[in-house]
Amino acid sequence: xxxxxxxxxxxxxxxxxxxxxxxxxxxxxxxxxxxxxxxxxxxxxxxxxxxxxxxxxxxxxxxxxxxxxxxxxxxxxxxxxxxxxxxxxxxxxxxxxxxxxxxxxxxxxxxxxxxxxxxxxxxxxxxxxxxxxxxxxxxxxxxxxxxxxxxxxxxxxxxxxxxxxxxxxxxxxxxxxxxxxxxxxxxxxxxxxxxxxxxxxxxxxxxxxxxxxxxxxxxxxxxxxxxxxxxxxxxxxxxxxxxxxxxxxxxxxxxxxxxx
Length: 260
Description:
signalosome; PCI_dom
């Protein structure tokens, strides 16, 4: 997809830039990255050694800001605003977009009331405008706004950066899914084998049936022929029936007497 290609290009760009910078120059780069309207993944930038070296320095606030955009939400920022740098409007919008993506990880049906609370939005019209213009048009989510049920039904949502503690849980989930898939595959294979066995049994029974039918036909034909032969034999040996030609030829002729 175009958005994924653009995302990958941006990540590659910022990673290369961060690898060649340090100190205040890195701070400027982090502000630029967290304000970019097309960038929604930051873990690769966090993994750059020069960025990690900001920990414990005078520029550590920028490292915390980058972590907020990688793993945090708008509520995290609001509840700890004093611990972070003041956000510019572009960053506020970005963090709210990322908040929707975090909520999408929990459920595929997002109630309006919950969205308004998490995004600090006061009315439904403002919320729907945000979801349409800043989320769906941006390509980070797809879904349907259900005004009757007052919820947003998600069909797709871009994934966020994985927190360090999430990797182990994801491995466990994937391992469980793999085990379930293996068991399902084994069950399917057993059913296929059973179906093949039943098919072969049906073929064998059908063949045996056809052989028996052929034998019955042959037997019936033989019996019919024997019956026809015996019927003709009885016909010619019957008293008063047709006399044998040789018997008639040798039989004495009756003498005719002249009429008086």
